[in-house]
Amino acid sequence: MLLTGCSPKDDFDDYKIVEYPPVENVSAKTEFDEYDGDTESIVVFITNDRDERFLFDYYISLQKDVDGVWRPIRIIKEVYDLVARYMSECSTMPLEFGLKEYVKLPLLPGRYRIWVGNERERLPAEFTIK
């Protein structure tokens, strides 16, 4: 008798992706371009090149590119820390997102993006899982 195992599958959610407009003079970049699938946290650096403060929160939204279409990864524990925080003008700030608490690991290979910012201004930081 031959037993076959199920191949791992992405844990996608079924909500509709919101594509946010570009945020002027603010950018987001992950600490590394590539991560292993069992990475427990990712640091995103937000750079504020505005002449005013930038508002942000700790809401997490993670998506994966599947054949040119972004699909949402299921969040297993909602983030309720939406308290507004400000970063100074013309500055860079690291934000650490603990993945192991919020998504099913390991993440499967592919291109991902994590959204950071605030309710009205979110920007993506892209990375690859190898």
Top keywords for this entry?
45% strand, 6-stranded mixed β-sheet, 3% helix, single chain, globular, 9 strands, 3-stranded antiparallel β-sheet, 130 residues, mainly beta, 1 helix
Report on the architecture of this protein.
It is a single chain. The radius of gyration is 16 Å and the shape is globular. With 130 residues, the protein is mainly beta. Strands 2, 4, 5, 6, 8 and 9 form a six-stranded mixed β-sheet that branches. It has a three-stranded antiparallel β-sheet with strand order 1-3-7. The N and C termini lie far apart (34 Å). Helix content is 3%, strand content 45%. It contains one helix and nine strands; from the N terminus they run βββββββαββ. It has one helix at 99-102; strands spanning 26-30, 34-35, 41-48, 54-66, 69-72, 85-87, 91-98, 110-117, 122-129.
Give the helices and strands as they follow along the chain.
EEEEEEEHEE
The outline comes out as globular
Secondary structural class: mainly beta
C-alpha termini separation: 34 Å
Look at the structure and give the mean pLDDT. Answer: 90
Proportion of residues in extended strands: over 45%
Rg calculated over all Cα atoms: 16 Å
- Profile the largest sheet: 6 strands, mixed
| Multimer state | single chain
- Give me the count of strands: 9
Number of helices: 1
Helix content: under 10%
Low-confidence stretches: none
